[in-house]
Design the sequence.
């Protein structure tokens, strides 16, 4: 089967699954599904993953052209509105990916603009970033790699002030998360103390592959926005080179373990799907030396996900489930499951591969 053929088939399965899921969950948001029977654990407000569900529905509406599917996607996006002013850096994940694919939807555009304005207002100049926040529990003054993707383009969409905040937010996370010696794996989580300053947190620890993929995605977005003057493009380029090499993004397993230091532990297909989209974005950076390698690797990752981890028709489980995602290995939560953001990034990557999604806009 040609690249177009297998990608078309896989995308159709994932988006058909999304349609079935929509009928099952109603006004709730799917979070993760049991690998045995496909039953979803859902949330009422979407948590940090709600934007991926809305984004997946927008991808489905774009494929089918159905007005009913657009209505369902628009309704899911509207239900994200309470997160616009919520105290969390994950509003980038929620409200960028939940609105960026909503072409022609005025309400989604207005929600994105409102969220971007609120995010700029949450920027803390003394810390040089938008704090992790307290909306999801825990200490507020923290910095994590999953508080960067989505928030970079969301902030940058808010004019010159937002572009400056986006650059500062990302660069401060690079200051914290990248190894001081210039080699090794990022440290993904930090907390701020007025007396001690920034201190590394024990969990998640270095080697968290989804955190590395999140960071690569944010840097890729920054490079695609780098015509604005706030970015240190040389540093962003060095960061990409470090992540590609030291995190084995182009030479390691196509589907990594959730903990790189435990190769015999649970896999995380969602980390692979996020990385594939990041690599496709990097392949679009003008004049980049890594473009060919990134494009080839991204296609190989998507092919492996489609052929090795996606359920097919005729079995006891629903077709179109991207299995072997790991929500949280430390607590043992959903360690071999279908994850809604894994489905979204697989569908987005396949859509981009087929020329149906512009990764400069999402």
Sequence:
């Amino acid at each position: 089967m040609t690249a177009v053929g297998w990608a078309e088939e896989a995308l159709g399965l994932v988006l058909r699954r999304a349609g079935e899921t929509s009928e099952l969950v109603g006004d709730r948001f799917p979070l993760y599904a049991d690998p045995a029977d496909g039953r979803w654990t859902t949330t009422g407000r979407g948590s940090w993953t709600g934007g991926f569900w809305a984004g997946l529905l927008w991808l489905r509406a774009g494929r089918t052209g159905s007005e009913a599917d657009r209505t369902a996607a628009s309704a899911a996006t509207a239900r994200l509105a309470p997160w616009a002013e919520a105290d969390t850096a994950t509003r980038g994940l929620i409200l960028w990916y939940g609105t960026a694919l909503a072409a022609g939807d005025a309400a989604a555009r207005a929600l994105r603009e409102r969220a971007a304005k609120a995010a700029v207002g949450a920027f803390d100049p003394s810390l040089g970033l938008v704090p992790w926040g307290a909306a999801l529990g825990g200490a507020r003054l923290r910095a994590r790699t999953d508080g960067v993707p989505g928030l970079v383009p969301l902030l940058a969409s808010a004019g010159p002030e937002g572009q400056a905040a986006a650059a500062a937010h990302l660069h401060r996370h690079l200051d914290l998360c990248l190894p001081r010696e210039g080699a090794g794996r990022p440290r993904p989580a930090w907390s701020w103390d007025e007396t001690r300053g920034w201190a590394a947190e024990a969990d998640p620890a270095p080697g968290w592959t989804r955190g590395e993929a999140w960071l690569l995605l944010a840097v890729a977005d920054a490079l695609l926005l780098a015509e604005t003057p706030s970015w240190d493009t040389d540093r962003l380029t060095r960061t990409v080179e470090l992540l590609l090499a030291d995190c084995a993004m182009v030479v390691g397993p196509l589907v990594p373990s959730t903990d790189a230091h435990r190769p015999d532990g649970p896999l995380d297909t969602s980390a692979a799907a996020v990385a594939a989209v990041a690599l496709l974005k990097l392949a679009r950076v003008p004049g980049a030396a890594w473009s060919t390698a990134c494009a080839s690797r991204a296609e190989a990752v998507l092919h492996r996900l489609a052929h090795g981890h996606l359920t097919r028709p005729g079995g006891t489980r629903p077709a179109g489930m991207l299995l072997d995602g790991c929500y949280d290995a430390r607590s043992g939560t959903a360690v071999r499951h279908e994850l809604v953001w894994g489905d979204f990034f697989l569908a987005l990557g396949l859509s981009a591969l087929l020329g149906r999604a512009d990764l400069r806009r999402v």
